[in-house]
Amino acid sequence: MRIDYRLFAALLMVAFFHKTLSAQETPLRTWTGFGVEKELNKSWDIQAQTQWRTEAGDVDAYLLEMELGSRWAKDFKTSGGLRHTWRHDDQGGLRGYQNIERVYFLTTYKHETGPLDWKHRLQFQSDRVTNRDKSLEQVLRMRTEATYKIKDWKADPNLGFEWFHHIDHPQRSGGAGWRIKLGTELDAGKDKTWKIDYIFDQKLIQGIPYTQSHIIKLSLDLAL
């Protein structure tokens, strides 16, 4: 008996979506972005992206990011980048937009096992709020994701898990949060790709859950 993996994957995505969204009352956010990538040579590439983030229809943040990467082995890549985020702050006495500067470094490793394409990422990031009296926040992020390749189907499902861990924070330690991602990529023509993801985001303080959110992420990437 031949199994229709396309139907099975679609039903799995719908069931996961419904169960997670209906689990409890949590904010729904949207992340909409546009990115470009340029290969400088066989080893080096440069990327740039911009993203708008909303909550309940209101703009929560927008960001600009630049990243330079190098492939130093067949399946390994190391990158470093800068991100500037303008985040809306409506908490406390001092309100308005926070200006956040991030410096980050990451290493990725890709491999295949049967129909699965695996990608593992280890990232260190350091965030500094330039217009607030806040401590430097340094986080180590560890992510693993797998894409299931389905024959004669363009929207291969992707499932990933990411863990966030505080580093040298004066008030916080241990786990900073985790995310589960379910998404896919769609060919949008020559050198253009749509990426569509659902993300469940769980923030932690001292390892204890305190905020959750559902995120719908949509981005268009262009290879130059």
Question: How would you summarize this macromolecular structure in one to three sentences?
Answer:
This protein is mainly beta. It has one helix at about 5-20; strands at about 30-40, 45-55, 60-70, 75-90, 95-115, 115-130, 135-150, 160-165, 175-185, 190-205, 210-224. It is built from one helix and eleven strands.
Label this structure with key terms.
Porin; 224 residues; eleven-stranded mixed beta barrel; 1 helix; mainly beta; 11 strands; disordered N terminus
Beta strands, count? 11
Strand content: over 45%
CATH architecture: Beta Barrel
Spatial ordering of strands, largest sheet = 1-2-3-4-5-6-7-8-9-10-11
Work out the radius of gyration. 19 Å
Number of helices: 1
Q: What letter string, H or E per element, gives the SSE order?
A: HEEEEEEEEEEE
Report the span from N to C terminus: 44 Å
The level-1 CATH class? Mainly Beta
Kindly report the name of the CATH homologous superfamily: monomeric porin ompg
**What integer is the average pLDDT?**
84
Q: Looking at the structure, what is the overall shape? A: globular
Uncertain stretches: 1-8
The name of the CATH topology is Porin
Given helix and strand content, the structural type is mainly beta
Largest beta-sheet details: 11 strands, mixed, barrel
Tell me roughly what share of residues is in helical segments: under 10%
Structure explained in plain terms:
This protein is mainly beta. The chain has one domain: monomeric porin ompg (Porin, Beta Barrel). It has one helix and eleven strands. It has an eleven-stranded mixed β-barrel with strand order 1-2-3-4-5-6-7-8-9-10-11. Strand 8 (158-167) and strand 9 (175-187) form a beta hairpin. The longest helix is centred in the first third of the chain and has 17 residues, at 5-21. The termini are far apart.
